[in-house]
Design a protein that fits this description.
Layout (H helix, E strand, L loop, with lengths): L2 E8 L2 E4 L7 H9 L14 E6 L6 E6 L14 E3 L4 E4 L2 E5 L6 H41 L8 H10 L13 E5 L14 E5 H7 L7
Amino acid sequence: MKVFKVADIVEGEIAFSAQARFKLGDIAALLTNLEPAEPPNPNCGWKFEIEIGQGPSARLIKLDLPPLISVSHSLDKPIPLGNHALVFFRDRLFIPERPPKSAAEREEIALRVKKAVYEEDADIASLKAAVANLEAAIQWSRSGPRRESIPEDVKLVVWTRDGGACMRCGSKQALHFDHIIPVSKGGGNSEANIQVLCQICNLTKADKISTA
């Protein structure tokens, strides 16, 4: 039992899919012939545009639908409209390839609608993550890694742990807080990645990862 998305609900308006398998006029006819829900959910009163006529005399009119979703409906699961002629779920409208003829087919329709919506949501989430990663890479290539100052509490812990002396030569002169794994190589400001080095040892290490 296949299902096809025919429209999205965008700010209370039905936006029909141009790639819908069914004619938009047929879907509009289904919607206008549906019985209003009782008691109606006032947040589910939708409107849509439809073209009347053809050629130069054609015009668009906007139709208001009465609320088709009841306040008793759970919006967490697919809602059949008009004996499963249409199915509503998460601001999308679907239509099955034919009306269901058994409880098993009704369950299958609900499962396929959920699967289609979840896959669409996952695709959008993946797209957002991919764009965020690309933007971060572009920003990094322009400005390099972002360097934040070492927190004072981390400095105190590291200074106490290292005894206020260079971890390489033991000097207590011209001391610096050093990143064991450099910021340029992904190192952070945790106490495990900070050590005390004198100026000479720090300059010798440069941006290499410390191994001693």
